[in-house]
Amino acid sequence: MQTGPASTLRVRGERKSTQERRQEIVRAAAKTFGTKGYQKGSLIDIAAQVGMTHAGVLHHFGSKEALLIAVLEYRDAEDLETLSAQKMPIGLDLFVHLYRTAAANAQREGLVQTYAAITGESVTEDHPARNFVISRFTALRGYIEDALRIVCGPDLPDDIRTHAATSVIGVMDGIQLQWLLDKEAVDLPEATRFALEAILVAAIAGTKRARPLGEA
Amino acid sequence: MQTGPASTLRVRGERKSTQERRQEIVRAAAKTFGTKGYQKGSLIDIAAQVGMTHAGVLHHFGSKEALLIAVLEYRDAEDLETLSAQKMPIGLDLFVHLYRTAAANAQREGLVQTYAAITGESVTEDHPARNFVISRFTALRGYIEDALRIVCGPDLPDDIRTHAATSVIGVMDGIQLQWLLDKEAVDLPEATRFALEAILVAAIAGTKRARPLGEA
DNA sequence: GTCTATATCGTGATAGAC
DNA sequence: GTCTATCACGATATAGAC
Question: Which of A37, A187, B138, B156 registers the highest number of CB atoms within 10 A of its CB?
Fold first, then answer.
């Protein structure tokens, strides 16, 4: 991704330099978009955090929307870094990883808040993060379905597997949301553990099951 | 709540009158706040839907924030109307009701979208809907805990009951969110049914259970 | 690479005519 | 009860100096 301009001399040891500055800005933007939301979060606010004017920020990213995209990509990169390994865990390990993520998230509210605010806003018309969020959900469902294929075997009907994957993501996001709004009322790690176990057990129980809920 | 000015003559059969006009506006506002979000949704947009200028809307509600509150109250009233009875069902009936709500919601996207957009935005700083959403979650958790007390008996440890209630709300919201963003990938009623059953079974299984997830 | 200055726009809210 | 007109404000983005 090295798109350096030809005219600029590029010494190896650029002292502080663009890349670092851009990262500072992205981090500030993540914080602002997280606390104020994308629409209300202003470039002026972001710029102030890194000691610049908003014009300076625009010099680096061109537009507010481009900055948001940069934030989203940065968040994804951070997520991968969090994994001790380089790749997404598989099988039962994935569920262990999901629980550990929830436990870790309980101590980094900012990250959760940024994710929740942007995801929440993304359902609105023509929101710049919309496609990103959709892709993210699709990918996550895929990972979880793969894990379920390993844990439950191939006998598990496709629709049940999909419902389970959708439920896992849904319940993690939903619990995070309630936790953000009322931390005393919600135990993020333990509620998540309960839900993950419940869904996993139900998936393992698998194909045939009594249906207590249903017709009148 | 009759705060009519003394100077105005109030004939019983006011022909079209304020209350109806206000309701039109609230409905338009719910639609706009749902599609654009609260921050981006403008009074001008809302006013146009009912054939007025934004000044006209402000005459009725005083401020944009007050209009949002009116929308939230209106939505709650609608929710209660949806219930065939007047009161919230109890015990197992509550879970049946929750499933039916999800099934009904699959055919009224607008309502779901409004709820999701406002709830999503509410995590941001000083958002006018924040307290409303917090109260709503608190009340819902209470209802569900009560239902679980009936279904599972009083032996169920308090923390498990709370985790289950949090999970129920979380999974319903989370599945709705994924459905809004990608309706082909998510079967809202059936995924919800799966999740509700899973959580219910786990709650019934109750107090003692092996813990497949946990330490390293 | 960052600043100042400015263009342009849209908003929520107010005042007063009708 | 609704409109027109206007205010005050804050935003994104651009142009050009340094």
Answer: A37
pLDDT tens, per residue, chain A with 216 residues: 444 444 344 445 555 688 999 999 999 999 999 999 999 999 999 999 999 999 999 999 999 999 999 999 998 888 777 766 667 889 999 999 999 999 999 999 999 999 999 999 999 999 999 999 999 999 999 999 999 999 999 999 999 999 999 999 999 999 999 999 999 999 999 999 999 999 999 999 985 544 455 544
Smallest CA–CA distance, residue B9 to chain A, in Å, is: 44
CA of B60 to C1' of C10 (A): 22
User: Could you tell me the distance in Å between the CA of residue B31 and the C1' of nucleotide D14?
Assistant: 35
Q: Which domains does chain B have, with CATH numbers?
A: 1-70 (1.10.10.60), 82-216 (no CATH)
Strand nucleotide closest to residue B66 (CA to C1'): C12
As a three-state string, the secondary structure of chain A is CCCCCCCCCCCCCCCCHHHHHHHHHHHHHHHHHHHHCCCCCCHHHHHHHCCCCHHHHHHHHCCHHHHHHHHHHHHHHHHHHHCCCCCCCCCHHHHHHHHHHHHHHCCCHHHHHHHHHHHHHCCCCCCCCHHHHHHHHHHHHHHHHHHHHHHHCCCCCHHHHHHHHHHHHHHHHHHHHHHHHCCCCCCHHHHHHHHHHHHHHHHHHCCCCCCCCCCC
Task: List CB contacts (< 8 A) between A180 and chain B.
Answer: 123
